[in-house]
Amino acid sequence: MNQKFKISLNLIQSEIDQLNSNLYSMISADNPILYSAAEQLFNAGGKRIRPIIILSIAKVKSQNNNISIEQKRLAEITEIIHTASLVHDDIIDNCDTRRGSNTVHNIFNNKIAVLAGDFLFAQSSWYLANLNNLEVVKIISKIIIDFAEGEIKQGTKSFNTYFSIEEYIEKSFYKTASLLACSCKAAILLDQNVKDQCNDFYLYGKHLGLAFQIIDDILDTTTTSEEIGKPAGLDLKNGNLTAPLIFALKRKKKLYKLIEKEFQFNKNTEEAIHLIKQTNSIQKAKDLATEHVQLAIHIIEKKHFSENGNKSLLKICYYVLHRFN
After folding, report:
1. Residue 178 exposed, middle or buried by CB count within 10 Å (0-12, 13-18, 19+)
2. pLDDT tens across 242-283, in order?
3. For residue 194, what is the DSSP state?
4. Is the pTM of this model over 0.85?
5. Domain containing residue 111: CATH number
6. CA gap 58, 147 in Å, rounded
7. From the centroid of its chain, how far is CA 17?
8. CB atoms closer than 10 angstroms to residue 288
């Protein structure tokens, strides 16, 4: 994380430390292979951006400056759901590394990885049910449905040059933004004093999630594998049309031929990245991400300004937009 973002953790540092400790006990399993596969994911670390956002919102909106046990558990559940989705994503995308470490299916095999992902989803569902809040159960359960729908939308549109920017945003919502939007809403619903604000924070999470995905797709084109902790250019190789590529198609017609050939060789992917960088498509994608971040900022500044919490929520917005990995 960059230094500016670390400052925003001051209000919730103890909660983040406790979350990291709790995650290991929450994924415990009798089967040593299953536990080892799940543990591998958390050993790889991660930014914990989703629980950071949830805990920050809970802290800011609290009347007594305390985060409830249920909100802390929600942050943990959200991170487990996110991690479970990564296991399945890595199999689908044939990704051998994640956060600089070998992926579960690369260490074990696809079957074990699928089961490990299913196990994490099941664990998250069990802890979710134990929150004893039907509204929150319904909202968070919708995330897993959205994950599946997003993967199907992406899979059926692979190497499809007619994939529009509107379809890209819709797919990005299902695959990424839904988790943040629903989790932010659930965090507010768990506080009886501010339940009427849940839709505002749903939108806050939605726009942050969309911006996060757009920036992630930009990094796939502009950074090295070492910098992002996973193979660079993987979206291109898998036929996933991202914002930079969609914008570049209008300027570089040769990209159509490369996509039609499904990037058969590494040099095809490298050539596509070179063509994208020759246009203003990366900047246009950044502008799109900026629009969504500005919408998130607007919600905080206009509706939920507070001296102690406003800065931390705004810094999260700036981090999402300016992060490097």
Report:
1. buried
2. 999 999 999 999 999 999 998 887 788 899 999 999 999 999
3. S
4. yes
5. 1.10.600.10
6. 25
7. 20
8. 21
